[in-house]
Write a structure and sequence with these properties.
This protein is of the alpha/beta class. It has 10 helices and 15 strands.
Amino acid sequence: MSTLRATLSNRHPTDDHNMGAKVGIIGCGRWGSVHLKTLVQLKQEGFVSEIHGCDINPEKGIEFADSLTTFSTDWQELVNREKLDIIAIVTPAESHHKLAIALLDHCTNLFIEKPISLQENEAAEILAKTQELGGTLLVGHILRFHAGLLKANELIDSGTIGQLQSVDFSRITTRKPPHNSNLFEALAIHGIDTACFCFGETEPSRLSIDSLRSKAQNSPDGVRICLEFPGTKEALIDVGWNGEKEVREIMFTGSNGTITLDTKDSNSILISTKDYHEQYTIEDTELPLTTEWQHALSRISTEAKPSIYPAPGSIFRSMKWMDKAKLASERINYTNGRPE
């Protein structure tokens, strides 16, 4: 059982006058529905008492009627009616800043899906207000809570594959690009944050675009990014929409071997060295989003101190290098006669 779950267990609902957390979730679309499924599970376990949904589409209230305590089409109606312990923002990235700043006046504990915002000054404002109010903030870099990735990091730190030299991150989906979605904000930021995280929260030194797959007059639907790190280390990040098959793989290459994981699988990783080739099973794991919510809920207990995760420096770093990748791809498109 995870230490996060153990932390939550210390705040058993039968001993807590709150009887679990009252959670609000703004945005009940494709990914928001996954959040709802996770919250329903945590409600069954007693760590969530109520789930209040909000979406501009009134049909979502019908679709998720069995999961929700209440449903609203207006977030202001929701926060004026309910006193919530934590609110998740699972809406398009361009809405995060305005929503977060307004919601902090009603609830100081937020879970904001990545990226926290589209501008660094907007992110800074959210972080500053959270800290000023003594609140907690979790930005949804979900792979930081993936059991396979955490075990791979642990094995790398122990020298299982020698010194880590490269991270190959692949996330190709067969899905079409969501409406108004951006490849860099939706997919590439995962690879950027994961690479920096696995290299010990190191700042990259250089970025280049190895390949760009795009249709005329449209945003890219595929990109391969190379991030260089100090000490001749690198990360290759290959992401895209409209793939022929789903690819969700991270390979860590060290001086003495490799570790490979499929991010759809939280229960095993493949370790290969000159001495052995082993499928390593990870016992008693949770899905990454469940672990992420456990973390968020544990931080709002009365015993926990105010916190921001990832650290502000990591949040800004992911935004900065995401923007660099986006700008580099725009220059390539412009040079090829396809200004965006």
